[in-house]
Amino acid sequence: MADKPETGRDDAELRQRSVGRTVPALQEWFVREVLPLEATLMQFLRRSGRSKSDIDDLVQDVYVRVCEAAAKEIPDPAKPFVFTVARNLLIDRLRREHVVPIETVEDLDALNIAIDTSGPDQTLIAREELRRVQAALDRLPRRAREAVILRKIEGLSWREIGQRMGIAERTVNRHLTDAMHGLADILYGDPPDVRRKP
Amino acid sequence: MNDTSQTSRTEAAEWLARRDRGPWSEADQAALDAWQAQSWSNATAFWRLDAAWARANRLGAARRAPGNRLLQAVSGRFMPILFRSAASALVVAAVAGAAFYTLQPGERSYETTVGGHETLTLGDGAKVELNTDTKVRVSLDRRKVWLERGEAYFDVAHDAARPFMVMVGDHRVTDIGTKFLVRQNASRIEVSLFEGRAKLDSTSEWAPQHSAMLMPGDVAVATANSMSVMKMPEKTLSSELGWRRGVLIFKHASLAEAAAEFNRYNRRKLVVEDPAAARLTIDGTFQDDNIEDFTRLAELVLGVRTENRGSEIAITR
What we know:
The complex is a heterodimer.
Chain A: H1 11-20, H2 22-34, H3 38-46, H4 52-72, H5 78-96, H6 102-117, H7 126-138, H8 142-153, H9 158-165, H10 169-189
Helix pairs in contact in A: 2-4, 3-4, 4-5, 5-6, 7-10, 8-10, 9-10
Chain B: H1 3-21, H2 26-38, H3 40-55, H4 69-74, H5 79-96, E1 108-111, E2 118-121, E3 126-130, E4 135-138, E5 144-156, E6 165-168, E7 171-185, E8 188-202, E9 211-214, E10 218-223, E11 226-231, H6 234-239, E12 247-254, H7 255-265, E13 269-272, H8 275-278, E14 281-287, H9 291-302, E15 305-308, E16 312-316
Parallel strand pairs in B: 5-6, 13-16
Antiparallel strand pairs in B: 1-4, 2-3, 3-5, 4-5, 5-7, 6-7, 7-8, 8-9, 8-10, 10-11, 12-14, 15-16
Helix pairs in contact in B: 1-3, 2-3
């Protein structure tokens, strides 16, 4: 379907085509519009008094539902949609568990509005992005950080990293896997840098 | 309480680690695609880790790149090929006393005329689409392309052992599995990244060295001694590719900019003579060879006057 000959001659068709490549387009949208909301999303879920592992699960479930919907039509803007999904999911959970403190649900409404009025997390210029990534790197466990530096800055292969750090490749795997989880949690899951907000 | 999301995240990291470690074949990619297709939980967990891990590539830009150790280290197996071609270049230069960019045996040169548009398939899953008035030179091993003039769109499959490189002026773009656009005009180079990742390095020996890792949506602008990277919305980016379908797409373009774009594609040139008219802005999509449509619209909407002078069309007020 996406491989039809290119006979289109107008802007609308161009737009349609870019949506036509469903999965890459969806992934690109998800990374650009949804992932940057993770910190705020977690803040929102935390206020409902759920446990840490519960919150991770909820975030993942929100992503699943958001993408299910976005596969049909990408919601624009993303932010209110993501938080509506989160809110409904949370209410479902609370209902199912028969622990429905009414104020919690009301709080959610209040929160929802507050969240929607703040602007979307704008794209960062390269320097700011570098600063953020460096800050995230600094917060990784020492060995994981070393492995990332050797991999991303020195550009070493896994074997070379093992040799340089004097560890088995299996251990390189563990450090780098930890780093992958850690970087995602810090870059997406942590509250945005307060210094940048008025 | 919820096993799937935890399992997805754990498995996503295993996949990402396997890919990062290499070697990574098409069969591996197919297996990863299949795993992602199993559930949105898998897909989103992978995208999330992949995006964060890709963001860490910016760290590569933290350092200046003297001699580009990053590249050499990443592509150990590629170096002998580089040395070999450098050596043969020396031989030819010595024998023929030729200029540095003389065509090497086995290299091929491709060129489009004004208004032309050609697609080269280089094998190895690389496609190069040449826009109007563009010239490229392709190396023997087909993994290196010199953009000597104009604009070209690259769609390249990643091969860790043999990175694909585009040399343009004093700069080099090294792909990491990607779709990107390179444009050279006057003293500046523009690289727009649509998919995947690519690295842009300055290669000049006398100017300060710059380096940037590009992500989808990034547009890098480089001159002899500066480099900047900005993020562009998808719509703006896709309008840069209108030429692939023979259209020019303008969004708040000044008449001067629009005329300059048309002039890249046509022998008959638009000349905006009135400075105030040059600043008027225009929106729309036009066939790149249809100057008449464009001038008619400009007359109608902007209230300018046009005058046909044979080889050029003057726009006045």
